[in-house]
Every structure is written in C-alpha cells, then in structure tokens.
C-alpha cells in the first residue's frame, strides 16, 4: 500500500492491525502517549476512533477527580482488552510499570502531561517524564513543563482523552505546538538515540531495582490531606525516600531539590504486629505512651518553651481562638506552640478534664501507637517518627501563619480570613491513619533472619521557615535524646512489669499482710499496702513509669548507681522506713503524714519490740537495725527520707499536702535522744527574719572596711540570685550578659543546661561594680550567641571553701551589727545561716507577691548547645516588661540599694571609657 506521510515524503508503509505503522517510528522505551499520538497522526484518527481501533473499547466520558479509567501511566485497563493485538501490546510496553506495582503510582502523576520541548518536537515522550520529582529531562536536560508556553493553560490529563489525542502535540486551548514547532521525522529513533536513551533506561532500571527490594508501603489513600498540593508532596517524598534505599545516579539538578528534605533510617523489630497477642499489644501501647510523654516533655523544653506553663486546654484555645500574632502582652504565641498543639492533637485521644476530679491518663491513638501494623518498628525509630511528625506540623503552621500575616484585610469581615483560621485545625478522623501530609515511609520485610530496614522522610518546598538549618539541627539533637529517653524510661517500665508479674504469680494468701521486716527487694505488699492508691498520690500520671511505692523507690535508688556507697547507705535508711510503715503502721509509704514521720523519728532511737527489729549477733534472720540509732544516724535517716519525698514530688508521684509540706520545710524534730544544742546545730534551711535581713545589708553596705566588695557580691549572689556555693564559684565573666537594658546571669545548675536569671538592681549594681573593678566586660546576648562564645575568665577566681569563708565572714559582721542593736537572738542565729536560708528567704518574698510566676528567673533547659544556637530568640522578656516588674519589687530591698538599670549601664560604660582612654601628654 502506498500512502503519503503527513509531514514526510511518500513511502511504502505496512499495515498493522488495519492501521499504518512501521517500527522505524518507534523508539525503545517511549511512552504510550507518544506511540498513540504518532499512530493517530499517521492514520488521521481522533481519540475516540483510536481507542476503538487499538483497544476495542469506548472512551470514558465524564470528569474524574481521581485516576482516569483510560489513564496512560499504568495501563491496567490495556490488559486483556477486547482489541488485544500487536498495537495494544506495543502501547502497554510504554507504561511506567508493566508490573503495576504500588511504587509506580507513588512516584508518578497522571493529572497533567509533563513534557520536554526537545523530545516532543521529535514526536517522543518518555514515561519517566511523569515523575514529578524529576525536574529536568534525562535526555536533553531541559526543564520539564506541564503548561502551554504560549497561553499558560495546563496540559490535559495523561490519559486517552480527546483533549490530549484529538490534536496531539498541540495545546487544545490555543492550538499552539507545545514544543514551538513539530517535525515528524521518519527516523525519529535515530535522533533520540543520539541524545542518549540510556538515561531513561537507567531510571526504569532503577525502578525495577527498587521493586526487586520489595519495599512495603502503607495505604496512602487513607491519609487525611487538607492541602491542595499534598499529593505532589507525597510523590516527591516517596522518590526521595527511595533514593536512600537505592541510589539514583542522576545529576543533582535533575531532581527537585526541596528546601527542606530529611530521610531517617530506622530498624524493624523481630516481631510483626500481626503476630502479637492482645496482652503484648496492650503492653506495647503502654510502652509507647510512656515514651511519648517523656519525648513530649523533652520537646517542650528543647524548643525553649518550658517557661510557658500552659496545660492542654490553654494550647487548644491558642489553636482555635487566637490569631498568630500573640496572646496578650506577656505571652507571644510562637509557631512552635501552635505546632505543638497540632502535634498533640494528632497523637492523643481527646480527654474530658473535669475540675476537681482526677484527670484521665494520656492515651495515644491506636493508629499511632501501633504504627506500622504490618511491620513493627523499634522504640527509637518510633520516637524519630514522632519527631518528624512535629516537623511536618511545624511546616504547616509556618505556612498558615505566613498566609494570615500577608492577608489583607485582616479580621472577621474578610471571609478568607475566617476560612484560613479554620484551616489549621486538625481535620483528623479517628478511623483514618493520622499521618501529616508531608510525611511518607517505606520498609522492607525481614529476610533470612535479618532485621528489615525502614525509611521515614519529610519534605516541603515552602519558604515559611526562616532558618533552613533548624530542622537539621533538631533531628541531630533528637537522635541523641531518643536513645537516652528509650533507655531510661523503658528500663523502669520493664522493672515494673517484672515486679507486677512476680506479684501476679504469688498466691493471694501470701500477699495479704507483712508479719516481719524483709529486705527491700524481697518485700511483697498487698494491694492495700503497695501505694497504688495512696492517700497522697498525685492525680496526674507520674513522670516515671511506675505503679506503686516500691517501684518508685527502686527507680530513685537506681539514680545513684554511679555512687555505690551512697546507694547502699540510702537503701539501708529507706528499708527502715518502708518496713516500719508496712509492719508497725500498716500503711503505704505514700500515705504517711506528719504524725507518722514524727513517730518514725522517735522509733529510730528505740526500736520496739527488740526481737522484731534489732538483729542479735547469733541470729540468722535479717533485721533493719543492729542497735538503736544515734542522734547523728537519726538525722541522716531523716535527711534521706526528706530527699526521697522531695524527689517523689518532683516526678509527680506523691503530692505534697499541707502536713507533708510542713515536714519537708522545717528542721527535723529533736527526738528524746537529742540535746537542745545538737538540735540547734541542725540545718540552716529556715527563712530569715526581716530584722536579720536588715542587719545583713547594713553590714555589707555600710562597713566596707569589715566587709569588702567581694564579700558583699557573694552575699547578694546568694540572696538575690538564689545561688548555692558551687554555683557562685562556677560563675565566669561570660555568664554575665546585657540584653535589652537588663543584666542577666546564666547559672550552671546541677541539672543539664543553664538557667537565665534577671539580676535585680542591687545585684546588678554589685556585678557591674565588680566587673569594672576587675577590668572585665559582660557579654552581649543576642539570639543565644552567648552559648557559642568561649568561656571567659572566672568571675571571682575563688575556691568553694574560700567562697564559703567569705560568706560566713559577712554573716559574722551582720551578727555584730545585731549585737550592737541589742538583738541577742538574731546575733546568735546569723552566724549559723547558710546559702539555703538566704535563697529561700528571697524565694519566699517573691512567692508572696506572685513574682515567682513572672519568668524573671527562667527555667532549666535540657538542650544541647549546637541546637540552642539555631533556636530563634525566645525566653527573654521585653525591656518594658522587665523594668515594670522590677519596679514592682523595689520594696523588697533597702532604699539605698534601689538603682536604675539605665543609669547603672550608662555609668558603667562611661567609667570603662574613661579608664581605657589614653592619658593626655
């Protein structure tokens, strides 16, 4: 048959299936679209006729929001079609995946035709052009387009439709050629081969290699998607994740380089979720809840937000009612706070908190705690999943916040404003998997007794976050915290499970009561004695994974593993209390009150009956005592008991009621075996009287000969700064900083991190005077750059013993002032006062006026310096707010110690300038 080519010379062309076609027009690896387009052009066929002639099927009519029935990406509908033949088989080879795996649908898109102008000008299109993560054509390295260059209209669906194939290679809107021109070459394959078809084959081979690894994917259709471009984000995230599974050797600019993209590799557990029994699933859910609460506390502090003590209800109100610009003057609502609220809502079930009643425990959504069900992950990997979910929510909140800030006009009169305010509220249905839209993951099943691998990735191409390195630093810091949290929290939980299992295996009759004392690890109290429902148990869940008193005590003792001698001494002291509570009192440890502690203190000096409590030399049974306790031993045991209950209150296990608080704050009661003088030499933990405070300031301010500048500074650091002797000794000149007209101290507490302390005017004056006298310079604090500076010279340059001697000298001078005023009682008490009394006195004054809640004295932040350098400026109060609050506290110090911070800084600068100026010749 002789026919004339549409754009070429007449040629002898064969018939294939009744249509004109020759293999010279075919290119290895070309897409089904380019094959059908050239076939339609040569035979003058519309899309309807083409579908009938090649596949024996009619066109699909109507609009489809999801996958089109005649899509050309996967070609499932081409298999076993009525018109199956050589042409339909050739078209089927042009789909992106002949295996029709879920992988091809996860990385490619059929919403629009994506094309390279150079390829399309020669009548060629490759199926990998539909991969959205590919930014450039693998053959010509041109940017892939999905719109008409002339009119800007989007290209039609990548499906067998009239819009795409009635006028192939042309825009159906304006009729212009997509490539600007079109030349139908008889030997198109030769031109494309000259451009290097191996690159396209490389991508297809890469897809086959990844499919050979057999990664498993979640049900992506079950994700809740609120953003218009979430499908695109998801496909890009998938291919970026797969590049970590199997390297894709393409130039860096060939793929979409998002501004933020992170992939975390994790491990799979040996046991899959489907193999777990219901008790094992319940135990795993409990482990995940413990890990989540510990990570939630770490995250709140790592973001520098632990100064804002808002409960869940406050966070919900911030999310639903307030604009992102701020809430009042004292609390600036940051994006991290809003993202934290979204993140909590994503993970936690809703709770009904009734005032006056015990709050229900935090429960995780089963879809999150059992993620993924198909292949169980390790605890550390699950925590990294939590961290990446927060990053996804932070990105969404940043984008939302920028949208509100740019919207005009702002307010309820703008309907778009209201719609945007409602958009950030999480639209999560409990039945669906609550993954954030920018997150994806893939995993390989364990094979040959080896653990499988898992990849979690998050990506976004928005420009909402001002610091692109923040998330990278956050992930690196999180990876270190995850290991620590998993080790510390799960160790306590495992011990609790073992203890609970031992109790369950014990016969009921043997755990009803305790008749005689036993070692701490041998005690097996009944449910009425174990403290699971003690009188002073806190209503909220404790910060440690324990259920009863013995488990909490064991966790506390394990904190002294580094000091075996201290741990052994503390164990012996606590064994006396626990056995006395169980045997003599018949009460749980968490139900003991002030009367019980006073009775126990008296019992230590005379344990009765002797046969039950004191071990005889010839007796083999264990007893808590070898002899009645001396006054020094009684004081030591009561100190250990006090330390234990302070820790139980700190971890929110045992509450500090009115009786227990009195016991914890006053000195130990003198027993009958103690004399009055021994009792008076007890502790220096009582607060000072107003007259004693006045005597101290008169001594340090009006007696420079007897109390030099160094002594006065130490006294003010201990009182106004509320610092201990080691904290004063560790201060360096770089720990004194100036921020917006305020003087700050960064104190090294015993716990990790530093605490920011705003110096009140008396302390600020003493610090600046000492810096000028010592020729030192304070640091400028801007966005935490203080932590990046090298430590300066020591502020005092004294040892702890010398600091203690100088403070004692200042108190002795104050005692002489009191004696000169005829106050013998104060003169007797002042030499015995220590740093604990000084800082407790000022803390009590602040509490009385409500200043302890103002944030003037910061909070300890457990955060690495590498991450802290990247955190935006937060945790500092405004200059006006600091001045106003310090002015409201001016009645707490003498009138001669009242200074203006502005005047102090101005005078300090002028004196330094005059001191450093060259002398006139």
UniProtKB/TrEMBL annotation:
<dbReference type="GO" id="GO:0003677">
    <property type="term" value="F:DNA binding"/>
</dbReference>
<dbReference type="InterPro" id="IPR013762">
    <property type="entry name" value="Integrase-like_cat_sf"/>
</dbReference>
<dbReference type="InterPro" id="IPR011010">
    <property type="entry name" value="DNA_brk_join_enz"/>
</dbReference>
<dbReference type="GO" id="GO:0015074">
    <property type="term" value="P:DNA integration"/>
</dbReference>
<feature type="region of interest" description="Disordered">
    <location>
        <begin position="667"/>
        <end position="686"/>
    </location>
</feature>
<keyword id="KW-0233">DNA recombination</keyword>
<protein>
    <submittedName>
        <fullName>Integrase</fullName>
    </submittedName>
</protein>
<dbReference type="GO" id="GO:0006310">
    <property type="term" value="P:DNA recombination"/>
</dbReference>
């Amino acid at each position: 048959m002789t026919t004339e080519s549409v754009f070429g010379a007449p040629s002898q062309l064969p018939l294939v299936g009744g249509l004109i076609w020759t293999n010279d027009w075919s290119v290895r690896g070309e897409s089904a679209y380019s094959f059908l387009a050239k076939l339609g052009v040569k035979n003058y066929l519309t899309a309807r006729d083409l579908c009938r002639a090649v596949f024996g099927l009619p066109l699909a009519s109507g609009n489809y929001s999801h996958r089109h029935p005649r899509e050309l990406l996967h070609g499932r509908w081409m298999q076993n079609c009525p018109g199956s033949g050589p042409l339909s088989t050739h078209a089927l080879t042009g789909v992106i995946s002949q295996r029709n795996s879920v992988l091809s649908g996860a990385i490619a898109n059929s919403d629009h035709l994506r094309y390279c102008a150079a390829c399309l000008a020669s009548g060629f299109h490759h199926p990998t052009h539909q991969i959205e993560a590919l930014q450039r054509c693998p053959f010509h390295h041109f940017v892939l387009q999905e719109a008409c260059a002339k009119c800007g209209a989007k290209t039609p669906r990548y499906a067998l439709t009239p819009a795409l194939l009635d006028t192939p290679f042309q825009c159906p809107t304006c009729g212009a050629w997509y490539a600007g021109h079109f030349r139908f070459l008889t030997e198109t394959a030769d031109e494309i081969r000259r451009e290097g078809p191996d690159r396209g084959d490389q991508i297809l081979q890469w897809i086959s290699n990844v499919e050979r690894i057999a990664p498993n994917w979640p049900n992506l259709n079950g994700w809740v998607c609120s953003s218009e471009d979430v499908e695109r984000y998801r496909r890009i995230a998938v291919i970026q994740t797969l590049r970590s599974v199997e390297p894709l050797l393409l130039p860096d600019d060939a793929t979409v380089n998002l501004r933020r993209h992170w992939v975390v590799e994790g491990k799979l557990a040996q046991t899959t979720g489907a193999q777990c029994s219901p008790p094992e699933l319940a135990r795993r859910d409990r482990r995940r809840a413990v890990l989540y609460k510990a990570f939630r506390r770490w995250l709140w502090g790592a973001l520098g937000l632990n100064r804002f003590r808002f409960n869940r209800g406050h966070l919900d109100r911030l999310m639903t009612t307030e604009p992102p610009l701020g809430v009042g003057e004292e609390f600036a609502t940051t994006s991290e706070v809003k993202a934290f609220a979204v993140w909590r809502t994503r993970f936690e079930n809703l709770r009904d908190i009734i005032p006056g009643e015990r709050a229900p425990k935090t429960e995780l959504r089963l879809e999150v705690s059992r993620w993924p069900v198909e292949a169980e992950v390790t605890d550390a990997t699950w925590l990294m999943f939590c961290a990446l979910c927060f990053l996804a929510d932070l990105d969404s909140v940043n984008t939302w916040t920028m949208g509100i800030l740019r919207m005009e006009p702002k307010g309820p009169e703008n309907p778009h404003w209201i719609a945007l305010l409602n958009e950030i509220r999480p639209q999560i249905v409990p039945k669906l998997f609550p993954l954030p839209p920018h997150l994806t993951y893939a995993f390989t099943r364990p094979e040959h007794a080896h653990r499988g691998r898992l990849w979690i990735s998050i990506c976004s191409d928005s420009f909402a976050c001002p610091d692109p390195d923040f998330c990278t630093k956050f992930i690196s810091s999180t990876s270190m915290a995850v290991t620590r949290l998993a080790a510390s929290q799960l160790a306590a939980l495992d011990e609790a499970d073992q203890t609970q299992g031992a109790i369950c295996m014990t016969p009921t009759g043997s755990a009803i009561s305790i008749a005689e004392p036993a070692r701490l690890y041998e005690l097996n109290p009944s449910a009425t004695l174990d403290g699971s429902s003690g009188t002073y148990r806190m209503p909220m869940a404790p910060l440690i994974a324990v259920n009863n008193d013995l488990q909490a005590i064991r966790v506390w003792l394990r904190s002294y593993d580094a000091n075996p001698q201290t741990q052994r001494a503390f164990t012996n002291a606590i064994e006396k209390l626990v056995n006395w509570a169980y045997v003599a009192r018949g009460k749980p440890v968490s139900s003991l009150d002030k009367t019980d502690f006073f009775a126990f203190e008296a019992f230590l000096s005379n344990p009765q009956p002797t046969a039950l409590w004191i071990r005889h030399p010839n007796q083999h049974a264990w007893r808590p005592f070898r002899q009645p306790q001396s006054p020094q031993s009684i004081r030591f045991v009561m100190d250990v008991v006090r330390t234990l209950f302070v820790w139980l209150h700190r971890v929110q296990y045992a509450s500090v009621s009115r009786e227990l608080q009195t016991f914890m704050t006053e000195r130990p009661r003198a027993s009958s075996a103690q004399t009055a003088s021994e009792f008076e030499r007890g502790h220096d933990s009582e607060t000072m009287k107003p007259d004693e405070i006045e005597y101290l300031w008169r001594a340090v301010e009006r007696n420079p000969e007897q109390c030099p500048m160094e002594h006065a500074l130490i006294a003010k650091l201990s009182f106004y700064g509320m610092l201990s002797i080691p904290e004063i000794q560790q201060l360096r000149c770089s720990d004194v900083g100036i921020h917006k007209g305020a003087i700050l101290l960064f104190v090294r507490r015993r716990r990790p991190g530093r605490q920011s302390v705003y110096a009140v005017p008396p302390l600020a004056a003493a610090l600046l005077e000492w810096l000028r006298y010592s020729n030192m310079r304070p640091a400028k604090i801007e966005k935490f750059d203080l932590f990046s500076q090298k430590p300066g010279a020591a502020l005092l340059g004294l040892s702890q013993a010398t600091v203690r001697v100088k403070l004692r000298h200042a108190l002795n001078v104050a005692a002489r002032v009191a004696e000169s005023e005829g106050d013998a009682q104060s003169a007797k008490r002042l030499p015995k006062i220590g740093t604990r009394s000084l800082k407790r006195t000022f803390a009590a004054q602040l509490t009385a006026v409500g200043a302890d809640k103002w944030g003037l004295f910061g909070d300890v932040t457990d955060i690495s310096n590498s991450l802290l350098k990247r955190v935006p400026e937060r945790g500092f109060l405004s200059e006006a707010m600091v001045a106003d609050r310090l002015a409201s506290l001016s009645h707490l110090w003498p009138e001669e110690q009242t200074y203006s911070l502005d005047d102090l800084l101005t005078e300090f600068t002028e004196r330094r300038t005059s001191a450093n100026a060259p002398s006139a010749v």
